[in-house]
Every structure is written in structure tokens, then in C-alpha cells.
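Fold this sequence, please.
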Amino acid sequence: MSAPIISADSHVFEPGDLWLRRVDRAFRDRAPRVVELPGGGEAMHYADGTNVPYGGFGSAGDRGRTSSVMPLEEVRSGGFDPAARLQDMRLDGVSAEVLYPSFGMRLFDLDDPGLQRACMRAYNDWLAEFQAAAPERLLGQALLPLDVDDAVAELERVAGRGFSGVVISGHPERGKDYATDRFEKLWRALETSRLPASLHIFTGPYSHRPDAFLSEYSVATSLVARSLTQLVFSGVFERYPGLKIVSAENDIGWVAHLMQRMDHAYERKGPRYRHGLSGELLPSELIRRQVRCTFMDDRAGLLTLEVAGPETFMWASDYPHDDSTFPESRQVIERLFGDLPPEVRHRVVYQNAADWFGLA
């Protein structure tokens, strides 16, 4: 029998009528909905006028060849059908998957707190039902709104419904970000819940211009890196040592350098600049203690294991998105880890995720 592997970052593909069916009636006229694009294909339409096409979120296995305007019938059904999902997991040799949203990531951009709260609540209710098909293998992450009181209330509402973690904004708007003390109530509640909070790529403000996407995609990881430095230097990790954070789908090649640069900044420049650290642990040690970072196919990142530490990384397949390693995840893992010790491979592709997300 092959050794088990866990994808620490996979996704669902929300049904097109999810929010129209489930969101509170007061917000239904502004809820996300499916529209047909003028050039063909379908997209999810949001209240601010943004259309997000189906292709990038539902074309796992084609290595980017599918048009971004693919129709719904071509989307991998494992994104929204638990039975089909488990079949694709068997095909890919994946034992369990940590489930993030697809179109739901865009909910963090909504300006209206009431609409955001209602849409995230509806998504969480649907996801609770989806993961109930195989709760030991489908590990849903509930969405928490940007408003702190709303986030804490939703965290309390979804408690006990089988979620193994939550998703908060990966990079909130500047001036309202994790360098401020506005989130103290949330950090306290998350530490008490013992659920990891994920900072997923593209869960915060960014441009949706098609002509800017490739550029922004290439540097998007820097936005979550900024959030991590804020959590460290504002003292959040020291005040809440039980807080668990996941950097999701931001790859790992930058993590070791960030650790090194943060330590350098703290030791050489810290005495001249205000920060919230006591000095008992270096920034890199706080990261190793409280942060786990996912990647799909990042050989450059694995070459930094000596600096970052094998406890810091978690492999992921990103199914059913177009970045996914599906249906060749085990071949990709063999290529990435072929010359690394078996105990390191086991830790990164299985044990770290099992520990972080509370699997037996």
C-alpha cells in the first residue's frame, strides 16, 4: 500500500445558485450569481460588476490548456459533488484534502459587511453539508468575515459542525491590516478554538484587470508575507502562542529568506524601531512555532528545508484549479522529494497537515 498523503490546500467549486438559494432574502438581489459571458462560457458575477470565469477554478488536469470561458458542463464535478470528489481523490492517490473556497475567496472583497456576512454564512452552511459526506477525508475551512465582531460570531456559530479550520483575509486593506490592534478579539477567540486560521492567496484587495493578472499572480505571495511579518512584529504571536496560522497556496521558496531577513531586521535594526516583541524568541522561531505554509510544485522551496525547517511546509494538490497537480500528484511528489530523506517526505506530505488540522 502506498504511504498516505494529504493535500493541505484543495478547493470546492461552489454551485452557481448557492448564494441565490441560501443567502438572506434582504441580500439576494446583490448575491453572487452565474452569468453568461458575451464571448461564450459562464462566470460568477459579483455586486461590484466583477465577473470571474469558470476556467481557472474547474480545469484541473489540463495544465492550463482550457479556455477561461469554459462552460459549466466541462468543470470537474468533484468540485461540487462529494461522491465524484472522493473518486478523483482515489484516482490521484490522496487520502484527505483541506477544502478552501473558489468563488468564495472573492467574498473578502465585498464592501458591504452585511452582504459579506450573509454570503459567508451561506457558504459555510453548504460546506458543512459537503464535508459531512466523508468528514475524516474532506476537511472544510469556514469563512470568517472581515468585521471582527462578525468573525467571532461566525466562529462560534460554526463550532461543532466539523470544520477543521477557518479562513480569514490573507491581506486586508492597508491601514486596517494585522499591524493594528483591531483584531485582538479575533486572535483570542481563534487561540481558544484551537482551529488554524488560513491566509489564502487572493483573499484580499487586488486588481481584477485581465492585462495585469500574470504580473499580480507572480508577486501575490508578497501580500501574505507582509501579513505574516505584521503578526510577528506587532507581537500577536507572542501574546497568543496557541494561535495557528496557515499560509495557503503562496508556495514556499520565499519563506526561508523571509525568516532570515526578519531575524536580521530584529537583531540589527530592532533597537532603533518600535516593535512588540519581548525577545524570548526570534521572528524565525515564532514562524516555525505558529505558521505552516503550503505548496504544490515548488522544488526551489524544498531546497530551503535546512533553513526553514521540515515542520514548516505542507504539500497540496490545489484540486480542482488549473494550478493543480491532479491527476499526477504522486508523480509530482516523487520528482520533488526523490533525493530527500523518507522521514522528511512523510512529514511534509502527510504528518504536518495531520497534526495542524487535528486528524487522528
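The two ends are 19 Å apart (CA to CA). DSSP finds 15 helices and eleven strands in the chain.
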